[in-house]
Write a structure and sequence with these properties.
Elements lengths: L7 E2 L6 E2 L2 E5 L5 E5 L3 H6 L3 E2 L3
Antiparallel strand pairs: 1-2, 3-4, 3-5
The structure holds zinc ion.
The site of zinc ion (ZN) has 8 residues, from strand 4.
């Protein structure tokens, strides 16, 4: 799950990125979304996880 501190994969496009926004999906699982895919995450009704 957390193999590396850096290089999380975006849950939507699958690219590795250091700058991710953490969301919770419908199953309350943590997913990382890169800044490019944030609008898509919002459309999929993912909830932004409070830090
Ligand atoms: Zn992405």
């Amino acid at each position: 799950m957390f193999k590396k501190i850096f290089g999380k994969s975006c849950a939507i496009c699958g690219k590795k990125t250091r700058e991710t926004t953490v969301y919770l999906n419908e199953r309350d699982e943590t997913v990382h979304v890169c800044f490019q895919c944030v609008p898509q995450a919002e459309r999929k009704a993912l909830r932004r996880k409070p830090r």
